[in-house]
User: Fold this.
Amino acid sequence: MNTSVSRIACFVEKYNFSDPREEGALQNFKRAAEKQGNEFHFLFREDISDVRKFDAVFIRATTDPLNTAYVVSKTAWELGLKVIDDPESITICGNKIHQYALFEKYNVPRIPTVFLNKDDLHHKKINDIFEEFGKPVVIKAPYTSFSKYVEKAACETNFRDVCKRFFKKSDVLAIQKFTPTEFDWRVGVLNNDVLYVCKYMIPKGRWKHGAKLRGKPTIVWGRTVALKKETIPQRLREAALKACSVVGKGLYGVDIKEVDGEYVVVEVNDNPSIYAGYEDRKDKDLYGKIINYLTE
Amino acid sequence: MLVVSNIDLTTDSRVMNPATFLDSTVKEPILNVNNEYRYLKTGYYVSLHAEVLGNRVIPSCENIIDSSRIPILLLRAERAGIPTLPSLVTDSVKKIVSELGFPVVIFAVNPFIYDGYKTANNKSALYRAMKSLGMNYKFAVCAQPLQGEIFSIKTFFGKCQTNDLQTQNICKKVYEHFKIPMCKLHIQRTREKAYLCGLQPVGKDELSGQDLQMISKEVSLLSEQGEHFGV
Ligand SMILES: Nc1ncnc2c1ncn2[C@@H]1O[C@H](COP(=O)(O)OP(=O)(O)OP(=O)(O)O)[C@@H](O)[C@H]1O
Assistant:
């Protein structure tokens, strides 16, 4: 247990408060921090340069190496503050090419994946991919989050269309075998330890956890079912921890699919969503544990 | 050492093009010479691929990302003893006015704008600068006081074409610290001193014949002598 008072900055944007369940979680963090005798302040982008006045930084705004959140994270890191998400985790999780290349290097059980360079978008290559993975395949832009730039393609025309769109921002894309399941396991991990576990159910007739309804602009998410972390299969736990070990020691949400009794990692997310009454349902202590990690 | 480049170099060193390298599993130190190291562009992926293969590489992915985020560039430069001015990251006009005053120079800190800056002498100019570089006030910007004249200079392996010793020194030190083989630096010059303000990619169309010769010469030299890859 820490004895001295820590000043924690929680970097947020206005949208973090637009959903009452997320706001609820943020207030839970604040309460947990204060209960332990720490100070907990929300830091908005107006005051980013004030990070140097704190001892620890907890980032809840969406992270990406190109976002302001990276600037906050790296600044804190350079100044020697404790930080979640740390800059290296942001860099690895923010780019699926980076992450999948590490999975391959360190043998993390994963969905079969190939990388496609901008210069390789031609008939033979596309054929080879369909040959290897069957149809359809899943195409991912490396910077995707909230399932935004993850699409299926079942023919060459469609494949080219999706790739051309995704190549506008990134010169390399990831192509995967289509591996649909009824739900994604979501294992919350902090510092090499399981923090919470849920199932993110995939809406009927869909294949992604978050799906756009026809004609509606907002994404609708499938149900979240929390489980006692003690009850999960050992091999699920191992797959989650192994995947995190190639990323870092921070706070992650690992998405895992169960395919024919095997656990394959879809991805490790830094900055995992935490909504009051959802991820925390069976593990209310997750708030205190994260605060502890920031202050120890 | 293998050179990976998207530029037509006149050198005897072995040079591989980026696409070939990305499909390879070459195991040796890599010198990645690209006019553009923007995140998610080929120049970035060459360094990423080299790192994942376990090769030493210039430039590193960390340096590519950090040098292109102006507030981090300035923080790390300052700590490395490179002259910089105090800066502020914010989306608040009020804060810039009260803490820095006028004139100021504004750089973008968002995923979309990676080139250029704006200067402002008064509040309405500052609002305009924040509106365009903050994309309608959606993002924070990086503000620095404008104390002298601001100019841009191309630099290759830390060398540049100027007689100003302080500017030469900044180019040299920025290269020593961030190891970006080619880029454009934005520098402020007061009567007494030069300060680093920003770093951005050089467009291929901005490269003169003379620049290409200079780059080729440096690449040849480094291949012969071996570059200090560091960590
Ligand atoms: N190869 C695949 N086959 C089938 N479904 C997939 C595949 N890859 C991803 N999915 C599903 O698509 C959704 C989004 O995938 P992924 O997590 O890779 O993208 P993301 O944009 O990072 O999404 P999020 O931020 O929601 O996790 C998830 O529900 C995931 O289970």
In short: The radius of gyration of chain A is 20 Å. The first helix of chain A runs from residue 20 to 35. Chain A has three domains: 7-85, 112-177, 180-270. The mean pLDDT of chain A is 95.
